Amino acid sequence: MQRIALALYSLLAWLAQPLLRRKLARRARAEPGYALALHERFGRYPDVPPARASGPRVWLHAVSLGETRAAAILLGPLRQALPGMQLLLTHGTATGRAEGVRLLRAGDLQAWLPWDTPGAVQGFLRHFHPDVGVLMETEVWPNLVAGCRRLGVPLALANARLNEKSLRGAQRLAWLARPAYAGLAAVWAQGQQDARRLASLGAPVAGVYGNLKFDAEPDAALLARGRAWRAGSARPVVLLASTREGEEALWLENIKPNRPPALAGKALAAINSLDVQWLLVPRHPQRFDEVAALCTAAGLTVSRRSAWDTAPVAADVWLGDSMGEMALYYGLADVALLGGSFAPLGGQNLIEAIACGCPLVLGPHTFNFAEAAEGAVQAGAALRVANMGAALAQARTLLQEPGAREQVLEQGSAFIAHHRGAARRTAQALAQLCGGGAADGAQILAPYRDTPAD
Predict the structure, then answer these.
(1) In what order do the strands lie in the sheet with 109-112?
(2) For the chain, is the Cβ count within 10 Å smaller at the N or the C terminus?
(3) How much is the pLDDT for 447?
(4) Strand pairing class (86-91; 57-61)
(5) Residue 90 burial (CB < 10 Å; 0-12/13-18/19+)?
(6) Which residues belong to the active site?
(7) pLDDT of 239 higher than 90
């Protein structure tokens, strides 16, 4: 039955290749990076294989920007655990690949993850011959797992997470999903809930190591520059961080200047009385122009980060239209509202904001970071509200009551410190898997037990 299911899936994946080509061409018009090395997407490579280094070839797959940044956190301890290792870094998105370039050392390799057909997967594995593979967070593909098993490449899932929505989807396709999860060599989960969901699909959960993002160190220079700019601001700065489609419109509905004060409500009137400096940072670069136009159409003046030199330029809205500078934006902000959490999109990385020492307000939708979000709220390291209007009211409280703001910052610092260590644990387990292979890694392949990470 499993062979029939995989064969049917493989046929559908093969038939979908023209659709994939069209999708990539369409996305390349907005993000040229998608036009790069298209042959790699379909498992075609130069005849000459890449030269090997003295150590093992470790393949890390980080599909997009967030996963690539998680991979960056893991790489330091991993290179220490495996001296001389050669990194093979793969991605699925243009932003992930662009970010990944910064992680490469001399002799390292970078490519697209192939489309999940048997031929493309086989071409990838036979060209690169990785000694071990690591999928970051969520990317589990049936043919990729099956291909690794056939060629004896141990394939693990690190920093693994699975929310309830994804679990229900996998259960509906259990005939395909269960063999894929069960075919992994090891799974290291972020939290207990993730571990239970993954184990219910047959995944070999070997431990709950925590979230790698807790081990990230904010860029000190960017953070210092942001704080210096904040000190020079005439108004308190409220940041909408990593906003997604529809959230800027929600914000505008609450603050647009032509709204009669009588309809605004006490919370809105109060925050407007503070004369706030708004800072918007969209999650995706292709939306920078769209968000700028949206603000301008609402009658707001906009100053873009790309036009700043030594300091922000005065305007109603500062628009963060740069990549890799979230530490600067969090340093610049007195309070941040977390994007992706005010529309049903699952939220963004809240750990980075807390680590940067920025008080954080969450909307109701944080299912992509469920355990981290709930833990932060319970610890008082972040504040949860029901909607955008309530978020503005909470921001007002934090701006007007320094004691409340300081309490959130203190709890945030303790919360981050308590959850560090995932990178070290994951690197040690991966080094063991690389050295002993799937059959000999007894410790890391021990069955999952419902106990907390140390």
Answers:
(1) 109-112, 86-91, 57-61, 132-136, 155-160, 186-189, 205-208
(2) N
(3) 52
(4) parallel
(5) buried
(6) 67
(7) yes
